[in-house]
Amino acid sequence: MINSLSGRFLMLTTIFVLIAELLIFVPSVARFREDYFLDRLERAQIASLTLLADDMITPELEQELLWNAGVFNVVLRRDEVRQLVLSSPIPSPIHKTFDMRDPSAWRLIRDALLRLVDREQRVIRVIGNPVQDGGLLIEITLDTQPLRTALIDYGIRILLLSAVISVITALLLFLAVRRVIVKPIKGVVEHMRAYAQAPEDARRIITPNAGVTELREAEQALASMQTQLTSALRQKERLAQLGSGVSKISHDLRNILTSAVLFTDRIETSKDPAVRRLAPKLVNSITRAVNLCESTLAFGRVDEPAPVLSRILLSDVVDDVVAGERLSIGDEDISLTVDIPTGMTLRADGEQLYRVLGNLVRNARQAISATGKGGEVSISASEDDSVWTIAVADTGPGLPAKAREHLFEAFQGGTTRGGSGLGLAIAAELVRGHGGRLELDHTGEDGTRFCISLPKHDLTLSSQNS
């Protein structure tokens, strides 16, 4: 309850109302004390006028007048003459004098609060202006105990009234907040839960109907997000179905093309010069088609195994990649150079790292081969305290603008003419599985350079140590 929006609003409302009532209570008590003094001055003036009307009053009547006025003595100044009109014995010396002719608000508040906390019974003098121009000045002496009792009684009534007002106000605000804010918010939450159960069902998309502007804007934003998400899920489902179909077609097509490769072996033995001249081009075309099918099947596998990390010698993996690519180079003027520190080991999955480097080196070799000129593909490596870095560079023509724009995106980021971009997409995904990054470091007319960064930091070990 206390952690709910309405509960906290109720608590804060009660606190703020009490603060407001306290700000009212303090000047109210000061005002009550001022009225108390003015009332005593007025009573004392009336009692003194009785004496002025008849000088021969009995002591008993004088005491009764003072008792009714609630004072010990009355001094009235008329025509510049100060006269002790009524008097009675004072139990103690006068403690303090208060001038009520023109007091400041701060002084009234201060004196009232001091009187509330002062429990001692004291005698004080109060000076004021007579009412109805009944003289120049009037002074009275009185006991502070009845004043403090009256202040406490008045303060208790004010506090009780403040508490009742606070409770009623907080309750009304609590009900209003629940009706206007909390209930619509709960409705939005229920819509979100219902939508989460079946996000593909468009009927579960929220319909904005809140009366509060801010809540309605939130509902509109939620409806827009749900609409886009539902469309994205539908598109994802269609793409998944399409991908499944493409994988099946690629699988069958690969088998057909593999059989076609066997037939081309016989074509190469033909004695017809034209056939023998076209046979290598046919073999290359079929080989590229087989590679595309295999890449499509590899990319379509959602159950790509997680890398099995172990300490491997980097030079062994690179040697295997270079050996395979040298067979593909044939008579082309393309050189492969390796610059790897002797004995450099890193923590990785050897098979997956071979696939990453194989894709990068193959792309580099094909880029140079497409120019019809010679070139160089280099593999280098380095390390520091936190990361292993492997670079694959070539002296080819650089990546086209479209490839740079959609780099590492399947079927869009092909680096060579007619390429699908699957090689880079798969390589980037395998590197991410190692917790690393595959980045394009440089590309231009002088060549292209890709960098693989593999972290040395083991998150599992670090979490256990922490």
Automatic annotation (TrEMBL):
Q: Where is the Histidine kinase domain?
A: 248-458
Database matches in Pfam families: HATPase_c (PF02518)
Q: What is its EC number?
A: 2.7.13.3
Q: Which UniProt keywords apply?
A: Coiled coil, Kinase, Membrane, Phosphoprotein, Transferase, Transmembrane, Transmembrane helix, Two-component regulatory system
Name by which UniProt lists this protein:
histidine kinase
Coiled-coil segments on the chain, per record: 215-242
Species whose genome carries this gene: Thalassorhabdomicrobium marinisediminis
Instruction: Enumerate the InterPro entries for this protein.
Output: HATPase_C_sf, HATPase_dom, His_kinase_dom, HisK_dim/P_dom, HisK_dim/P_sf, Sensor_HK_Regulatory, Sig_transdc_His_kin-like_C
Q: Which GO terms describe its molecular function?
A: phosphorelay sensor kinase activity
Q: What reactions does this protein catalyze?
A: ATP + protein L-histidine = ADP + protein N-phospho-L-histidine
Q: Where are the transmembrane segments?
A: 9-30, 154-177
State the SMART domains in the record. Answer: HATPase_c, HisKA
Q: Which PROSITE patterns match?
A: HIS_KIN
